[in-house]
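ok trying this again, last paste got cut off
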Amino acid sequence: MISVLISSESRYKINREKIRKLVQNLLGQAGLDEAEVSILIAGTRKIRELNRVFRKIDEETDVLSFSLEEARDQEGILRLGDIIICYPKAREEAGEEEKMVDEKIDELVEHGLRHLLGKHHE
């Protein structure tokens, strides 16, 4: 079973089911049928703080990924890690690219997931 844990600050309206299905499809395509991913939809302050602490870059970014070092738990479930998406940044980029915000969020989820799977900027 693929588990997608999604949390969001309440003011950010997201389509949780669409995100969940996207992750499940992408992981299925990668040959994974038992995995867990956590996704947080955050604001600019939160993502800037995480970017500053973990990457030493004091600015907001659109997406961050944090993979787990001990990916498999005792039950054998592959816990890939966390994806954090900055909703205001995604909304801004969607406007610049003339896309719907949901479409941009999907792109960022896919980008973050590729990082968790070890694929970097192909």
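PB: full thing came through this time. Residues 2-116 form a domain with the Collagenase (Catalytic Domain) fold (CATH 3.40.390.30).
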